[in-house]
Design brief:
It is a single chain. The chain is of the alpha/beta class. Helices cover 29% and strands 23% of the residues. It is built from 8 helices and 13 strands. A 5-stranded mixed beta sheet has the order 5-4-3-12-13, with helices on both faces. Strands 7-6-8 form a 3-stranded mixed beta sheet. A hairpin with a 2-residue loop joins β6 and β7. α2 crosses α7. The chain is globular, with a radius of gyration of 21 Å.
Length: 291
């Protein structure tokens, strides 16, 4: 189970066509292949089952997510979002499923961010500004050494809400803002507070990366709504899946425009739904048929 590119790499299928329009998979249907034919030394006679792909950038992992969450049979209007470097989005409305993919990039995973890092000990995962002071929470309460995805999202939302950055992402005046050779940056953690002997800052370039990522997701949602002739207010529930989606502060995601401005109770974070969907099809032929 994986996205379409990983699916093709695993099977040794060509992938060049996935990089050019119209992004057609070599195969979209589900497959059962002997493990030994793929070089896997599992149980004798073992088969590998691969779920169907939907399109070039919406793969079997998203099918598994739809199975696990039950979006495919919802009677209300639901948006399901599996957030990652490639974010898959599905809208369930009026008995149909509409799906698209958003090139959200690796910013929410800490890449392309000056002090970005994976969700490990010492990563700042929550940020709150109180006047000129910054309050933060780190993973396992270790001294701060960088920012993981949820911390980056919180930091940008807090800077926006405090007026430290404008709607275009440029920093204004603040006691913690300073001019550097490549633009301005905001000091979140001083050298004395950090666990790595260096300040932890967020730069205007970091904010631009978040703007690209959140803009891709926001656009994907809006395209699906427009296709279904719906408005954001018509959404009854937003289901957020994926490792990053598990930990994000929904209020912060709404504040920066990544998610629709809806009451918080309409959002549900479900964790690794794709992994749960994979387990379902391993133990149920009915679920395989449904996929």
């Amino acid at each position: 189970m994986g996205n379409t590119a990983m699916h093709h790499f695993f099977l040794g299928l060509p992938v060049a066509q996935l990089g050019v329009s119209p992004y057609i998979p070599v195969i979209s249907s589900s497959l059962d292949i002997k493990a030994r034919d793929l070089g896997l030394g599992l149980a004798p006679g073992c088969y590998i089952h691969l779920l169907p792909n939907i399109a070039g950038f919406v793969g079997a992992d998203h099918v598994a997510m739809l199975l696990a969450t039950g979006i495919y049979e919802a009677e209300k209007t639901v948006v399901g979002i599996d957030i990652g470097t490639n974010t898959e989005i599905t809208l369930r409305s009026c008995g149909q499923l509409l799906t698209c993919s958003a090139a959200s990039g690796p910013a929410f995973e800490g890449a392309h961010i000056k002090y970005g890092m994976r969700a490990a000990d010492g990563a700042i995962e929550r940020v709150r500004m109180v006047g000129s002071e910054v309050e933060y929470q780190t993973i396992n309460d270790f001294p701060p050494v960088g920012l993981c995805g949820s911390g980056i999202l919180d930091a940008v939302a807090q800077l926006l809400q405090s007026g430290s950055i404008g709607k275009k992402g440029k920093m204004g005046s603040h006691l913690r803002v300073r001019q550097m050779a490549r633009g301005r940056e905001f000091v979140l953690v001083t050298e004395e507070q950090s666990g790595g002997g260096r300040e932890v800052t967020i730069t205007e370039a970091d904010i631009a990366e978040i703007q690209l990522a959140k803009g891709a997701i926001q656009t994907g949602i809006n395209i699906l709504l427009a296709e279904a002739n719906l408005a954001a207010a018509d959404i009854d529930e937003v289901i957020i899946a994926g490792a990053f989606g598990t930990y994000i502060n929904v209020v912060s995601a709404i504040a920066i425009g990544m998610l629709p401005r809806l009451p918080v109770h309409r959002f549900r974070q479900v964790g690794n739904a794709a992994g749960m969907g994979a387990k379902l099809v391993l133990v149920s032929r009915e679920q395989r048929t449904r996929a």
